[in-house]
Amino acid sequence: MTDYYKELGLEKSATQDDIKKAYRKLVMVHHPDKGGDQEKFKKISESYEVLSDPEKRRNYDTPQQPNMHNINSNLFSMFFNGGGVGFSNMFSNQNTVKGQSVVHTLELSLEELYNGKNIVLSCNKKMICNKCEGKGGSNITKCTKCNGSGQCLKNIQIGPFMMQQIVTKCDQCDKGNIVDPEQKCDKCNGNKVVQDNEIIKFDILPKNIDTRKIVLENKADEYPGTIPGDIIIIIKEKQHPVFTREDNNLKLDKKISLKQSLCGIDFNITHLDGRTIFVKKDGVTCDNYIQTIPHDGMNNEGSLIITYHVEFPISLTDEQQECIKKFF
């Protein structure tokens, strides 16, 4: 198993700032575009992904080992109770349900995808009430109709002399508990959850053009007794005024005059990270001619591809026509 702390050169007591600083320092050295080793960079990125997420880091620091004795005991007691089927045990040992995930679209410019970006989102969602701790009130009793299971058996006639038993949600309580109306929580009004904002932070890594979906696990709406769903971030690329992206490549359309197409041209291009690239094309340049500059695309594997478009004059004077006839 990979030692994530060792990969980043950190102690287990490292803060989030320490983790971020160590990661950025190592990326500058080991990124493949800087001549670094691909496998080493993957381990560094994996380590940062785990340690920068508080929940993933907590799970990594304190891995839980299953107790097989308890599992077997629970399975036995779930299905058998004194030689017969124990429905109350079945209800009390249900698997925890995961809530519904939500999808958000995040639009990023080519500059942000190329250089990386620290994303800070304010997420408005349902959160467990911190005053009543998700209980809904202070005077809570167990429902007598379902015996606290939150579910009841219901008989349904499906034909002549034929009955079927189905499990339904108890109509007298909320998951087995009844809150005294006079003792409802005044913050959530007995709803157990409140609408609130949570600040969520994550990083878009530099030149990471392959990531089109980011899953923030268990960050959606909360509700007692359920695992929150995920927030799924779909990254959408904004249209750029100068460049278009095609996989790892950056493409640019350059208009030139007839004179430039015959005599040559030189010009500057401002790249996505702000640096200036000097481009020179000697000799004759035909319409739709393509010039490729390697290693200057979205990453070191991509190229900057320039397509030249010659703008011909609409008309020529007699003198201009004579000059052309003289030399061609």
Structural summary, described in words:
It contains 9 helices and 17 strands. It is an alpha+beta fold and 328 residues long. Among the domains are: 1-65, Helix Hairpins (Orthogonal Bundle), CATH 1.10.287.110; 244-327, Urease metallochaperone UreE, N-terminal domain (HSP40/DNAj peptide-binding domain, Sandwich), CATH 2.60.260.20. The strands form 7 sheets. The protein has a 4-stranded mixed β-sheet with strand order 12-13-17-16. A 3-stranded mixed β-sheet has the order 2-11-9. The radius of gyration is 32 Å and the shape is elongated. Mean pLDDT is 82; it is low at 65-94.
- Helix and strand string, N-terminal first? HHHHHHEEHEEEEEEEEEEEHEEEEH
How would you classify the helix and strand content by structural class?
alpha+beta
Distance between the termini: 73 Å
- CATH superfamily of the domain at 244-327, by name, is Urease metallochaperone UreE, N-terminal domain
Descriptive keywords:
four-stranded mixed beta sheet, 328 residues, 17 strands, alpha+beta, HSP40/DNAj peptide-binding domain, 33% strand
Short description, anyone?
The protein contains nine helices and 17 strands. The chain is α+β, with helices and mostly antiparallel strands.
Topology:
Layout: H1 4-7, H2 16-30, H3 38-51, H4 54-61, H5 68-79, H6 87-92, E1 97-98, E2 102-108, H7 110-115, E3 117-128, E4 140-142, E5 151-159, E6 162-169, E7 177-179, E8 193-204, E9 213-216, E10 226-227, E11 231-237, E12 244-246, E13 249-257, H8 258-263, E14 265-270, E15 276-281, E16 290-294, E17 303-311, H9 318-327
Parallel strand pairs: 1-10, 2-11, 13-17
Antiparallel strand pairs: 3-8, 4-7, 5-6, 9-11, 12-13, 14-15, 16-17
Helix pairs in contact: 2-3
